[in-house]
Amino acid sequence: MQPIDENVLFKKVSWRILPILMLAFFLSYLDRANVGFAKLQMSADLNFSDAVYGFGAGIFFIGYFLLEIPSNLILHRVGARTWISRIMFTWGFLSCAVVLVRTPYEFYAVRFLLGLAEAGFIPGAIYYMSQWYPEHRRGRAWGTFYIALAASGVGGGLLSSFFLGTMSGVAGLAGWQWMMLGEGLPTVLLSIYMFLRMDDDIAGASWLTDPEKRYLQNMLSAQDSAKESEGVMAALTSGKIWVMVGIYFGFTMGLYAISFWMPTLIQRMGVADPVRIGLLSALPGVCAILSLIAFGYSADKHNERKWHLITCYVMAAVGFVLCALWQYNPVLGIVALCIANIGVFSMPALFWSVPTSMLTGITAAAGIALINCIGNLAGFVSPYMIGYLSTVTGRTDIALLVVAGVTAFGAVLVYLLMRSSRPGPLAAA
């Protein structure tokens, strides 16, 4: 029998599953964060204050929190193809429904329902990928996957600015309404394609030969035997997982400070035109894509995660401090946003290698969902805090410094989690 070439095998796996998951991830982030650009017109059209906008942007994550763990447990039971395509169909439909919003309470309701609908996609995708890639391949795979997150900042900014700048008044709809439709409908179409084409597991992959399936299954089984799989309660009561929750909270705090407020921060630097705001917002995204690839490659090459992750968290904290100091200078302000983007967007691909290297089976499904759903509550805290403080004080620098402090604390937690391979200190932490 001809020996299996591992590089050829994983190239085949990656070409089959990564592009469709990356496109879904791109649309996921675009559909939850495009209200950052919608705000440039929506707030004036609907008379929304910064506090109303911040609460509406953040309440998404309350719905997300409520269904995250149940969603991932259902995925573990019914399979990724059915459940991920269901998630995408409902969130795409609700993203389009934002065009009907007229009052703050309608805005809150649609954003809350959008969070319920999208709950489970990211941890589901992470869990699904862990069923195809062994540990020594995950840094590069997740680094590639998370390019979609950074790319949504680039492509999303350009696409959103196009709708805002050119579609206002067409067929009686505002530019922000066209943006919601134009960015929500592709999600619905992709959900149908995924249902028809996605494979639930290695055994069902008709594009792999039987020897390739056995090789891949044996490799993953050998690694899983050394991991924890003790049920859902083991995940909920694990000290290690709760430290990871804190680390991920720091990432999410920074991510949604950038996502929901970067267009407004650029506007306050003195840039008024929505198209120029979109173009300028793309530059930090480009920097994030390049750094994400570099960090993922370096971490895999050196088989090192701790100091790579700490560097990311420190860079993010420094970037947010500089955003506060340079918020009225368009040149230095963009430099600060680039630094913050490099730090924030390079975090998750490195981070997810940690829990998936420790957990397997139902414990992995529950643990990943727990980390993501609790950590994503920062997605409510971050935009609402910035909006509230901006409304009360007329300034954003205080909120940016708070975000910087949370991301800096994330670096401390990474050090505590990864300072020793022994389980005792991790549980105690």
Textual characterization of the structure:
α1 (6-33) runs antiparallel to α9 (175-197), α4 (80-97) runs antiparallel to α9 (175-197) and α8 runs antiparallel to α9 (175-197). The protein has one domain (13-428): MFS general substrate transporter like domains (Growth Hormone, Chain: A, Up-down Bundle), CATH 1.20.1250. The chain has 21 helices and no strands. It is mostly helical and 429 residues long. 82% of the residues lie in helices and 0% in strands.
Overall pLDDT, averaged? 83
Poorly predicted sequence stretches spanning 5 or more consecutive residues? 421-429
Broad structural category:
mainly alpha
Summed up, the helix count is: 21
Shape: globular
Helices and strands, in order, run as HHHHHHHHHHHHHHHHHHHHH
Please state the second-level CATH architecture.
Up-down Bundle
Rg, Å, rounded: 21 Å
Q: How many domains in all? A: 1
Major sheet size, sense and barrel closure:
none
> Please, what is the oligomeric state?
single chain
Task: Give the percentage of residues in beta strands.
Answer: under 5%
- The number of strands is 0
Distance between the termini: 49 Å
Write down the CATH topology.
Growth Hormone, Chain: A
What helical percentage do the residues reach? Answer: over 70%
Class in CATH? Mainly Alpha
| CATH superfamily descriptor | MFS general substrate transporter like domains
